[in-house]
Amino acid sequence: MTAKTIRPAGDAAPPTLHPLSRRIMHWINALAILLMIGSGWRIYDYYPALPINFGFPYAYTLGGDLSKSEALNNEDGLANALGWHFGAMWLLVLNLTAYLVIGFVSGHFRRDFLPLRVSAVFLDFIAALRFRLAHRLGEYNAVQKLLYWGVLLATIVTILSGLSIWKPVQFKELTWLFGGYEFARVVHFFGMAAIVGFIIVHVGLAVLVPSTLFAMIVGRGPHRHREHRP
Amino acid sequence: MTRLSLERQPLVTGIERRLFLRQTLSLGALALLTGCDISDQDSVQGVLRFMSRWNDRAQSWLFNRSRLAPTYAESDVVRDFRYNAYFPEDAVPRLSAADYRLELSGLIADKRPWTLERLHALPQESQITRHVCVEGWSMIGKWSGAPLGTLLEHVGADLTAKYVGYYCADGYYGSIDMATALHPQTIMAFGFADATIPAKYGFPFKIRIPTKLGFKNPKWVTTLYVTNRPTGDFWPDRGYNWFSGL
Q1: What CATH code is assigned to B45-238?
Q2: What would you report as the CA-atom Rg of chain A, rounded to the nearest whole angstrom?
Q3: Which domain holds residue A142?
Q4: Tell me: the pLDDT tens digits for A176-201?
């Protein structure tokens, strides 16, 4: 057993919550996800995968001005969206791979996202609904842990279903796994929807607790965090 | 041990609704800013084109010449296959079977044009495969015809060359990589749905390539050529990816 070092409270520099590598990967991921979703929405609109009358407002899609595409190329604005999608996918996948490798090797996942217990998720969820859930910088509550695992899973499913749409011949086994070409598009859509759901909660909470946003930019909290530990 | 949430000191006590609203609004403003789409700027276009060329290389590396596109049962074939071109159906080229000649050019030893009768004499086969459009729709159809590779071998084409290009009666043009041209499922489809291919689907033939997106399946083909130089290509010249493999 090592003795605990007692630091004088208040005057020590706040601890680093997010190392530089993680912050860089976070913002690269944010950019890549925005590019993928924006362009993906336009691609969806050209031939919706769902059998319902639903489309994304043109202004929220990525791919440039429609009339410019028409004038320049006699092309209706899909080429740019596809260009973004198949360009940004490399950024997304390479960055995510680096994040996963570093996350496992450094112990970030084990330390910060585990253990995850059903009872803890339940209690923390109830507390969150009553606005009674504390947010300690650098420490993840059970609901957060669940959300991070969830969005990681959704991202991986979306990438794999995307690969199966992109290459239904070269990766035909993967396409088969996702229920064939047409159904893989539906899976890809709902994977995106799950990620968007996460982003809404994630950004909403960052607005509620701006110190988390601060920490993801400079690496540490705005001031030393006083915690009540029993 | 589960820590009780009640012990926790809520940081977000006394959220002022107005503050929250204001912060949300500024976030919304930020989101609107991203709406100033930069896609049309020259520098961005350059990046997109660079990535598209990178994807050409990646797809060409990924392409496996012996890997077959999935095939389907007769019952999967759609009955009313979609007509698709960049002009209306009444404008499709109507070529005469008797006058038709397939012109050959480029790195080909025997460049004598082929009549339709001679093309039909090549060994033929059928396939039921999925046609996948770059827009996202897909349809299963049945095509019959002669492998393009058989013709290329027959006329002494340089099979080590990089590209096989095509010109079509409607002004359409483009090219595919040699590996795809020699793929066993790449056929000159003289037949569609167990009948002669009709004008609207590409009579006298469409190059049916189930390992490529639909727009790389040219109809009303009048000229084939073999070359080592990158060629023009109708939709890639308008910003789409050249390789467009599946």
Answers
A1: 3.90.420.10
A2: 21
A3: 114-223
A4: 999 999 999 999 999 999 999 999 99
